[in-house]
């Protein structure tokens, strides 16, 4: 398998989408409006992770591009929960990509406590052999959700996917605390906005 050649267009997808998403952030900044995007990261799944996923799901080498939907992965991190839905709406209305799947783990958390909004998109990329439509995964989450997921991911790595029950329970409690923090921040935000509206009306 020539991994370099296979992954090159995915690197292109990640770079192009990073530029486009950063563009959204900049436009909000130029207009001095609250940006629903705090920061963006992106990566191409490393070959060992692709192989591991293919093996665990019994995916044939020839099916990798069709069945592993997150070879190209983007992560959009926001300040507030409602920013997540603002971004989803913005992505739904774009015609340079098409959404083929949506998973709302924000309102329906996973058993682990994980929260995030996932979109699987199809994105056209120009290659030296012509246009290719590739899939990418966009994960959208708040800073608090990201903090939790990053730590849980490291623990999963440390315990090779077998986190002890006690640690799992702690993580679930931490996930709840992170979600409460998000809820409190949203309330504060609404109150501040309401106060600003009243101030402007005077
Ligand atoms: P990595 O190392 O982040 O790339 P799929 O994996 O898409 O084929 P699935 O499981 O239905 O199938 O997808 P799902 O639930 O949308 O999850 C995909 C990605 O979401 C994972 O990719 C993680 O990045 C993230 N994720 C999902 N659940 C959890 C969780 O409980 N904790 C954390 N920290 N992240 C989670 P990978 O490939 O598993 O891992």
TrEMBL record:
GO molecular function, one term: ATP binding
Pathway per the UniProt entry: Purine metabolism; ppGpp biosynthesis; ppGpp from GTP: step 1/2
GO biological process terms on file: guanosine tetraphosphate biosynthetic process
EC id: 2.7.6.5
CDD domains, A to Z: NT_Rel-Spo_like
InterPro entries linked to this entry: GTP_Pyrophosphokinase (IPR052366), NT_sf (IPR043519), RelA_SpoT (IPR007685)
Domain spans labelled RelA/SpoT: 42-163
Record has Kinase as a keyword: yes
Domain of life of the organism encoding this protein: Bacteria
EC category name: transferase
Family the entry assigns: Belongs to the RelA/SpoT family.
Subunit description: Homotetramer.
UniProt name for this protein: GTP diphosphokinase
Source species of the chain: Oceanobacillus picturae
